[in-house]
TrEMBL record:
GO terms for biological process: malate metabolic process; tricarboxylic acid cycle. It catalyses: (S)-malate + NAD(+) = oxaloacetate + NADH + H(+). Belongs to the LDH/MDH superfamily. MDH type 1 family. Residues 82-224 form the Lactate/malate dehydrogenase N-terminal domain. The chain crosses the membrane at residues 20-44. This is Malate dehydrogenase. The keyword NAD applies. It comes from Citrus unshiu. Keywords: Membrane, NAD, Oxidoreductase, Transmembrane, Transmembrane helix, Tricarboxylic acid cycle.
């Protein structure tokens, strides 16, 4: 459970006449994951100082057991950060709003949509966590929603139905993204933008062109959210390799549609000697993960809950980077020189300015090298389609 404190064990170690406390924090997905502290102190029942120390430790345990916000120091020690969600009343937007409300790094949460945001904002706003929540509805309120934002997350637009490709969403979503990005350029030109709306392979280049035209483009602050591909690759790999999913890491590179999604299982950790056939099947399942959900939902949309989770993980990484947390690395579709394509998803180090470093691909297997060459023409065409649309 998010932000839940699990006090694993407190016991008196009689043999050593020491009072020992073990703490295990599991604050994932936003905070510590697996911090283990051991405190050991004299436990003689007759010693007054020891009794005092014991009650003081227990007091600290009780305090630490509360979420950061309730401990009262989060707003002083964590910088104020405003996050805006555009498309906040949608299938992704609502659970994403919930998860961002639970994130102690957020101090203001702006929920924007063309409809239904007052209800979502009232609902989420009752949750007793740090951020203030405000709902904004309709174009007239878009500027207010965006003003002062540090991070803008965009899950606005139509989702797929069975039989459609992500590119089939282009005609509707390209225009939505273009308009929203024009407003971002006007009202919060320095914000980090997390683009979720599909087709990501085209909507990110559209956003870049809109920002270039407005004179606000900062390639370090524009991200296509591909975290769901990583989330899926981790889940599927853990299942096949029979390893603890919480320990799994798998980079996913390329883009975010079909064969442009290239999981690098040769770099997956913990290592497992999977057969080539298994790697091929895992690759295909990761590439078709979105379609698997679209078909299972049978006309009622695409991935929303897993996407909200993935979007929250990525936004949290951006906020941590902004706040100066070191070594924050996530895969994302960004402006890139990793290949000859102008945009490409790979591991990215996040920092105070957004992208600190776009990391290379690392060693690829023959199968992955082949996949990389195969995806380039499709990804190139999707990027060019976005650029052309934005400049038409
Ligand atoms: N990057 C990724 O990994 C993923 C991307 N997606 C994409 O995310 C998008 C949203 O998906 P869902 O939330 O399921 O769709 P949805 O239809 O449930 O929600 C979309 C929301 O966008 C709003 N909207 C439409 N035009 C708008 C505008 N001009 N300004 C603000 N809001 C606007 C709608 O009112 C609606 O509330 C789709 O394009 C989908 O393909 C979905 C899953 C994964
Ligand atoms: O498949 C879709 O249309 C939505 C999406 O991008 C995903 O689930 O990866």
């Amino acid at each position: 459970m998010i932000f839940e404190f699990d006090l694993s064990t407190i016991f008196v170690n009689k043999a050593c006449r020491h009072f020992t406390a073990f703490f295990f924090f599991n604050l994932s997905p936003f905070s510590f994951n697996g911090l283990f502290i051991i405190i050991s102190l004299p436990a003689s029942p007759k010693s007054k100082p020891a009794t005092k120390m014991r009650s003081s430790v227990l007091r600290s345990v009780k305090t630490l057991a509360k979420p950061a916000g309730a401990r009262g120091y989060s707003s002083e020690s964590v910088p104020d950060r405003k996050v805006a969600v555009l498309g906040a009343a949608g299938g992704i937007g609502q659970p994403l709003a919930l998860l961002m409300k639970l994130n102690p790094l957020v101090s203001r949460l702006a929920l924007y949509d063309i409809a239904n945001t007052p209800g979502v904002a009232a609902d989420v706003g009752h949750i007793n966590t740090r951020s203030e929540v405000a709902g904004y509805m309709g174009n007239d309120q878009l500027g207010q929603a965006l003003e002062d934002s540090d991070v803008v997350i965009i899950p606005a637009g139509v989702p797929r139905k069975p039989g459609m490709t992500r590119d089939d969403l282009f005609n509707i979503n390209a225009g939505i993204v273009k308009d929203l990005c024009s407003a971002i350029a006007k009202y919060c030109p320095n914000a980090i933008v997390n683009m979720i709306s599909n087709p990501v392979n085209s909507t990110v280049p559209i956003a870049a062109e809109v920002f270039k035209k407005a004179g606000t483009y900062n390639e370090k602050k524009l991200f296509g959210v591909t975290t769901l591909d990583v989330v899926r690759a981790k889940t599927f790999y853990a299942g096949k390799a029979n390893v603890n999913v919480a320990e799994v890491n798998v980079p996913v590179v390329g883009g975010h549609a079909g064969i442009t999604i290239l999981p690098l299982f040769s770099q997956a950790t913990p290592k497992a000697n999977l057969a080539d056939e298994d790697i091929k099947a895992l690759t295909k399942r990761t590439q078709d993960g979105g379609t698997e959900v679209v078909e299972a939902k049978a006309g009622k949309g695409s991935a929303t809950l897993s996407m909200a989770y993935a979007g929250a993980i990525f936004a949290d990484a951006c906020l941590k980077g902004l706040n100066g947390v070191p070594d924050v690395v996530e895969c994302s579709f960004v402006q890139s020189t990793v290949t000859e394509l102008p945009f490409f998803a790979s591991k990215v180090r996040l920092g105070k300015n957004g992208v600190e470093e776009v990391l290379g691909l690392g060693p690829l297997s023959d199968f992955e090298q082949e996949g990389l060459e195969k995806l380039k023409p499709e990804l190139k065409a999707s990027i060019e389609k976005g650029v052309k649309f934005a400049n038409a």
